[in-house]
Amino acid sequence: xxxxxxxxxxxxxxxxxxxxxxxxxxxxxxxxxxxxxxxxxxxxxxxxxxxxxxxxxxxxxxxxxxxxxxxxxxxxxxxxxxxxxxxxxxxxxxxxxxxxxxxxxxxxxxxxxxxxxxxxxxxxxxxxxxxxxxxxxxxxxxxxxxxxxxxxxxxxxxxxxxxxxxxxxxxxxxxxxxxxxxxxxxxxxxxxxxxxxxxxxxxxxxxxxxxxxxxxxxxxxxxxxxxxxxxxxxxxxxxxxxxxxxxxxxxxxxxxxxxxxxxxxxxxxxxxxxxxxxxxxxxxxxxxxxxxxxxxxxxxxxxxxxxxxxxxxxxxxxxxxxxxxxxxxxxxxxxxxxxxxxxxxxxxxxxxxxxxxxxxxxxxxxxxxxxxxxxxxxxxxxxxxxxxxxxxxxxxxxxxxxxxxxxxxxxxxxxxxxxxxxxxxxxxxxxxxxxxxxxxxxxxxxxxxxxxxxxxxxxxxxxxxxxxxxxxxxxxxxxxxxxxxxxxxxxxxxxxxxxxxxxxxx
Length: 506
What we know:
mainly alpha
């Protein structure tokens, strides 16, 4: 008589439910990756479409800025709020609702008859995207119970998030070669239909049962982040003006009021106690510094590849494929590196490698250096991929499951803040150096359009000089963060030994 005959399940029967749960979890992750890819891709998919789009809709200079940036503004401003909504009202519910809003915005954008309608469509897409990112990352905690599987899933999530940003310009260029500019939006629809059809079947619902949302905190959060991000991006695109300074001061003031209010709430929108955890603080600071360097240098080198080396936008985007592949690959395996080295050492490796890769970009020049660009951006891509994976994992591991959405919102807001700072600070620095070296136009593009051959060469040289300085600044910031991560990890290890715990657990 066997164990099964007397009602005791054998090993295969005991493993079956676990195996089924694992399959369901990985299928659920596959569903979560669909909206993440779209949200990140739509940040950059319009870069190559702007000339064609401008010819069709004839937007003003201000409207062009809003078409490109309103999506990112709304996304950054609502991430923390939407992460909290998912925690309170159900992450799957928020995900599906956000996907529907994102799809509506995509259809409206594809057939927009005017620039104003397109701006409204991009706003809707930003609202939908802000609901999708934090809830999708937070749901990983509900899908995967064991830490190792969860860490791997976070790495895959990060890889698709980072890969979407790199894929956007390439996909946009391919679509424009065959269809009209609206196809850049319509490509979202088949993916969203699959997600809305299968998401309710494969994704668990999870809500934390927390208290009601504080509306004043929501207003202060959104009211602080939106003008601050707008001021940074506007200064990068148009040059600093007094209005940018006033908006930045207004945003900073509202954020200070927001932080003060969070200290006195029983159930705050942003749990400031998170920042008492050294690992969480280092992760958020690292993501901000990493995105500042990545966004700023990527923007500046894309101009270099087109306006200095003379490549068209699609050819310039193709040169970024090696770095994008490395970012994607390292993001997938970043959790294993983190487990082997420990979070502190992994952050040091990630930030240090990104700094070295950036310094290699000093090899670019007016008459050559594309090989240095490919090598430097690829090596830096290793650091960025590892850093961003660690940030996402630390963000959701440092908090209890009921606050995972809010913590994910904080980490993703740091990405958007770093993006705005990179474009503004590094972009403004290059503009300052460029204008100080000769009687050029207000931008390199304007000088290339109207200058003679001697002036054009001098302008290209001035621009490259400015980019070199920006590269050094970005690499220095990354190196400083690497040293900070090293000191914090050593201090934490020393504290554990003092308390009698021996070596810290990795």
